[in-house]
Structure formats: structure tokens, C-alpha cells
Design brief:
Elements (H helix, E strand, L loop, with lengths): L3 E6 H4 L13 E6 L35 H6 L3
Antiparallel strand pairs: 1-2
Length: about 80
């Protein structure tokens, strides 16, 4: 794994990070490690099936807006 390590003054980082008081005006070591590849996934997302409702279908009415009465019951 490739990484970068550099020792610098904490004041150089103050514009990027909020430096804790115990680290202010001190030399600090910065290590940059990759956390993920920035390569787009060429696969199309697969359609997922709901595991708790196998074989059940969601009616189109499920996606309709709630009535004013229902919204009030939910406190919205």
C-alpha cells in the first residue's frame, strides 16, 4: 500500500483541520493512507428484493402522499 508521511508544523494544518489545544504550535506527523479506490464500478446495480416480504408485492398506493389526517396523526 502506498502512503505519504510528513512532519510539519500544526499551524500549517489549522486551515484544514481544527487542531486540539494540546497539539497547537507543535510539530505533528501527517500520514495519508488510501481508504478506497476511486475507480468507478462498471457493473449495473442489481435490483434488490425485500428479504422480509418474499413473494409480496408493494401496491402503487404505498407511494402516494399521505392524507392531511394521516400527517396530523404522525405530528407532521
Amino acid at each position: 500500500m502506498e502512503y505519504i508521511s510528513k512532519t510539519i508544523s500544526s499551524t500549517e494544518l489549522s486551515g484544514i483541520f481544527e487542531i486540539p489545544p494540546t497539539l497547537r504550535n507543535r510539530k505533528v506527523q501527517v500520514i495519508i493512507l488510501p481508504v478506497e479506490d476511486n475507480v468507478p464500478n462498471e457493473q449495473k446495480p442489481q435490483k434488490r428484493q425485500l428479504g422480509f416480504a418474499k413473494g409480496a408485492e408493494i401496491p402503487d398506493s404505498f407511494f402516494e402522499p399521505l392524507s392531511e389526517e394521516e400527517l396530523q396523526l404522525w405530528g407532521l
